[in-house]
Specification:
Elements: H1 18-24, H2 34-44, H3 57-63, H4 68-82, H5 86-106, H6 112-119, E1 124-129, E2 132-137, E3 146-150, E4 158-170, H7 172-175, E5 181-182, E6 201-202, E7 207-219, H8 225-235, H9 242-271, H10 276-290, H11 295-312, E8 315-317, H12 322-325, E9 331-335, H13 336-340, E10 346-352, E11 355-357, H14 368-375, E12 380-381, E13 387-388, H15 391-402, H16 407-413, E14 416-423, E15 428-434, E16 440-446, H17 448-452, E17 455-460, E18 463-466, H18 469-484, E19 488-497, H19 506-509, E20 513-522, H20 527-538, E21 542-546, H21 551-561, E22 572-574, H22 575-579, H23 583-589, E23 595-597, H24 601-613, E24 618-622, H25 628-633, E25 636-640, H26 646-650, E26 654-656, H27 661-702, H28 709-727, H29 753-777, H30 785-810, H31 818-821, H32 827-845, H33 849-852, H34 860-871, H35 873-889
Parallel strand pairs: 9-21, 9-24, 17-20, 21-23, 22-23, 24-25, 25-26
Antiparallel strand pairs: 1-2, 1-3, 3-7, 4-5, 4-6, 4-7, 8-26, 10-11, 10-20, 12-13, 14-15, 15-16, 16-19, 17-18, 19-20
Helix pairs in contact: 3-5, 4-5, 4-9, 4-10, 9-10, 9-27, 10-27, 11-27, 20-27, 27-28, 27-29, 27-30, 28-30, 28-32, 29-30, 29-34, 30-32, 30-34, 30-35
Length: 891
């Protein structure tokens, strides 16, 4: 059906006058007729967002099997089953299916973003149809409808405004700008003006905070700005996380290596005169044994444990691989409003009595500037103390409350009896209050330059003096100074008259006023954000601010947070300036900018992609609808749990439950720990499997029958699983947040892990072969070759198993000494080693089980040799680590 919809008119309506827009939309100020509206809804479809394609539960389950490592394991399971090794096949299948189920559970909400966008639509809208105003469901709106707006409404479609009365609309969800926009009917000339600058437009899902207005519907459904975001979300491909890429690469490397070893072993066996079928089965058995079949499950478990840790620290992970991704992050692109700042306007500076006043100074209702800001104010205070109204006005009332002023009592004492509402043209508002002495107070507030024009006097410490030109200029200079600090400045004035004014208008009230002072307000940075930025920088992560707010505001906040240096003159770019740069040019210049102001959703995606093309792993934080496409494009999207829209949460990989930027730093540390622990588990598993492969391979070359398939299976089952999972609970290494990000090119084999796997695997194989050789050349059962072979096989079996358990201590750190890292800090690890050791020993010590496993009892001398040889891997590796540290210290 979507393909049959008539395409809506796409024009820069903000550059056209009302008459031209009415003509384009084939409508009039009286609105459409019901018949015409029915015709258009049939042509354009309802005013709602497309659902997008959703996957069935079965498809989500099948998607879990697209991973290369999983495919290799499934092939191994089939081969094992065909050649009679049913137990191994069953174990592999159970692991793979469990891994898939966990993946589906964690990603069950993958399509939430589009659905949440659809649910955000306004349920009702006032529309002029057939010349009368009717209330309709917003999905019934069509292009050309005339919509009426008033405070409290959600804008139901994209509108070109044709009539306004002090209309203010909060568009933070779309633009990131924290302050409501004063709407004007002025025709814009810049065709490329960003959403935040289109002051004669109203956009779907934004909120009317003040005044009223009328507008022509120029876009519905997917043709709105929100619809465009939904389209971007639907078309944005999910990026593979570094962890997923690493696991795929690991699977490919292992497959090639194992196939080569199996083929070489088959050929060598044939050259030694072995039966081809026997060698084929032996080679396949070796290949299956070499595959770390528990690895996907162990990785999943370590990630799941990481999600639990993060959840306790207010970081909620929606997709398992995202746990690790933050640890490799090079760039954190953060939205400003509500993420780095509080999304709450706050009075920061006050100017009265000719100087900037410290906010800590006491001030009360006898101070004219405070009195005027409280009275010339439309904020409502609810029964529970909540402030309702324009964020700028509520900031003024909150300031008064913080100073101990009883605002409600003050307004009862001197009630408002008349007013001249705020008007976006004159940029002022005034109220009239009856005083206890019978006189009347006129309080006014507004733009400093406009209010000064109406002032003839100034209040200095309670003395009213004439306002001369020199003083006016000093006030204007202070206004400029505060504005350059990105503060939103408002001035206050007043006058007292004997009688109730008869002319309640701007001309009647706003003349010959007494200037009282001004306030500078800002959406302040979060207290903890500055420290979080510092810690991120120490960890080698570059914070980038991306906002829809004005350039000066963004630059000021960035400097206060430490994203920009205090004296830095560059590093800031606007969306309009970014439009002038080609993608190729921007790819080379993206490193020059740390702050992006007045940007659109397309810009945010472009910035993320530019950093990704530069080879960086990018995290994007955000809370608005406008952040959703970039959140989905980034390597890891981080939504805000409290202030965030459902759209931004649905598009995110992780959600901050406390909206606290510093929680990201905590999550980064946890992510680095998770990767390090996965790396340790892989080092442990692959060095153990390499030890097994070398043992079997060399034994085959020498004609030794050293280990049966059941022995390899039991060792893998007992020694691989518990210690490998327990390694996932290792605490973060002390210097983890002092290291630079490992980068996109890093793999599980980076930072010395590959060389460690190789030399440690060789050690395990060599020690096992040595014990077998010793057992066959120092027989206890002289002349009984069968018993000699049984003892030798038993000793090799126990040695290989215990070697792996002792070796687990070595992999707590690639280079650091075990004495530095600590033997027994991880209680679960200690328990895992004890349980695995007991399970390994029980098959030798318990009568009946030793017959089933074809092993024999050992005497004290044999046990001492086995234990000594197994433990020897710890001091040997410690000596090698001393050499490695010495080499690295020399660079």
């Amino acid at each position: 059906m979507d393909n049959e919809k008539k395409e809506q008119v796409k024009e820069p309506f903000f550059t056209q006058d009302e008459a031209a827009v009415l003509k384009q939309m084939q409508t009039s100020e009286e609105g459409l007729t019901s018949q015409e509206a029915e015709k258009r809804i049939a042509e354009y479809g309802p005013n709602q967002l497309d659902e997008g394609k959703t996957k069935s539960l079965l498809m989500k389950f099948l998607d879990q099997f697209k991973d290369f490592m999983i495919i290799v394991l499934l092939v191994a399971a089939v081969v094992s089953g065909v050649f009679g090794d049913i137990s191994d096949a069953v174990i592999i299948l159970v692991v793979v299916i469990l891994n898939a189920v966990l993946g589906v559970v964690q990603e069950a909400k993958a399509e939430e973003a589009i659905n949440a966008l659809r649910e955000m639509s306004s349920p009702e809208a006032k529309v002029r149809r057939d010349g009368t105003v009717v209330s309709l469901k917003s999905d019934q709106l069509v292009p050309g409808d005339i919509v009426l707006l008033e405070a409290g409404n959600i804008v139901p479609a994209d509108l070109r405004l044709i009539e306004i009365a002090s209309l203010q609309i909060e568009e933070a969800g779309l633009t990131g700008e924290s302050v409501p926009v004063d709407k004007e009917l002025t025709i814009l000339e810049d065709v490329k003006a960003g959403i935040g600058d289109r002051t004669n437009m109203a956009f779907m899902n934004s909120n009317v905070t003040y005044g009223r207005g009328e507008g022509i519907v120029v876009g519905t459904g997917m043709s709105t700005e929100v619809g465009h975001i939904a389209e971007m979300l639907a078309s944005t491909e999910e990026t593979m996380t570094p962890l997923q890429n690493n696991l795929n690469r690991l699977g490919k490397y292992l497959t090639v290596a194992i196939l080569v070893i199996a083929v070489v072993m088959f050929v060598v066996g044939m050259l030694n005169g072995r039966e081809w079928l026997d060698m084929l089965l032996t080679s396949i058995s070796l290949a299956v044994a070499a595959i770390p079949e528990g690895l996907p499950a162990i990785v999943t478990i370590i990630l799941a444990l990481g999600t639990q840790k993060m959840a306790k620290r207010k970081a909620l992970v929606r997709k398992l691989p995202a746990v690790e991704t933050l640890g490799s992050t090079d760039i954190i692109c953060s939205d400003k409003t509500g993420t780095l700042t509080m999304n709450k306007m706050t009075v920061e500076k006050m100017y009265f009595n000719g100087q900037i006043q410290d906010n800590e100074e006491p001030i009360d209702m006898q101070t004219p500037v405070l009195r005027s800001m409280v009275y010339a104010n439309d904020t409502q205070i609810s029964g529970d103390g909540t402030l309702i109204g324009d964020p700028t006005e509520t900031a003024l009332i909150q300031f008064a409350l913080n100073k101990g002023v009883d605002v409600v009592a003050a307004l009862k004492k001197e009630p408002r009896v008349a007013e001249v509402p705020f008007d976006s043209e004159r940029k002022l508002m005034s109220t009239v209050h009856k005083q206890e002495d019978g006189k009347f107070l006129i309080a006014a507030k507004g733009a400093p330059d406009e209010l000064l024009k109406r002032c003839t006097k100034i209040d200095r410490n309670g003395t009213i003096e004439p306002l001369d030109e020199e003083t006016k200029q000093a006030i204007l200079d202070m206004n400029h100074d505060l504005a350059t600090q990105a503060l939103r400045v408002l001035s206050m004035a007043y006058k007292v008259v004997d009688n109730m004014p008869t002319d309640i208008s701007s001309a009647g009230l706003e003349q010959e006023l007494v200037y009282a002072g001004m306030t500078g307000m800002i959406d302040p940075e979060r207290e903890e954000a500055k420290d979080a930025v510092r810690v991120a920088r120490e960890a080698g992560i570059r914070p980038i601010m991306i906002t829809g707010d004005h350039r000066d505001t963004a630059e000021a906040i960035a400097k206060r947070l430490g994203i920009l240096e205090e004296q830095q003159k560059d590093g800031v770019i606007t969306g309009a300036e970014l439009d002038e740069i080609s993608d190729a040019d921007f790819a080379t210049r993206v490193k020059d900018y740390s702050v992006y102001a007045r940007v659109s959703p397309q810009h945010k995606v472009r910035i993320v992609k530019a950093w990704q093309k530069a080879g960086k792993i990018v995290a994007m934080t955000g809370d608005g609808v406008n952040d959703a496409p970039a959140l989905k494009t980034a390597d890891i999207g981080i939504g805000m749990g409290i202030t965030g829209t459902e759209v931004s949460k649905g598009a995110s990989d992780m959600v901050l439950a406390d909206d606290n930027f510093s929680t990201i730093v905590v999550a980064v540390e946890e992510g680095r720990k998770v990767f390090s622990n996965i790396q340790k588990s892989i080092q442990y598993l692959l060095s153990a499997n390499l030890g097994e492969v070398l043992t079997l391979f060399i034994a085959t070359l020498l004609g030794w029958s050293i280990l049966a398939p059941v022995h390899i299976l039991w060792i893998n089952l007992v020694t691989d699983t518990f210690p490998a999972i327990a390694l996932g609970l290792e605490p973060a290494e002390a210097d983890s947040m002092k290291q630079p990000p490992r980068g996109k090119k890093a793999t599980f084999f980076s930072n010395g892990v590959l060389s460690s796997i190789i030399y440690q695997g060789i050690l395990e194989g060599g020690i096992t072969l040595f014990v077998y050789w010793w057992a066959t050349h120092n027989p206890v059962h002289v002349g009984n070759n069968e018993l000699i072979h049984s003892d030798a096989l038993t000793m090799a079996f126990i040695t290989l198993g215990l070697l792996q358990l002792f070796h687990a201590f070595n992999v707590k750190s690639v280079e650091k000494s075990l004495f530095t890292v600590g033997f027994f800090k991880n209680k679960m690890f200690n328990l895992a080693i004890l349980v695995s050791g007991a399970l390994l020993a029980v098959v030798v010590l318990v009568p009946g089980l030793n017959d089933a496993f074809k092993v024999s009892h050992l005497d004290l001398q044999q046990w001492l040799l086995v234990l000594g040889a197994s433990f020897s891997i710890i001091p040997i590796v410690e000596i090698i680590k001393i050499g490695l540290r010495a080499v690295h210290k020399k660079g």
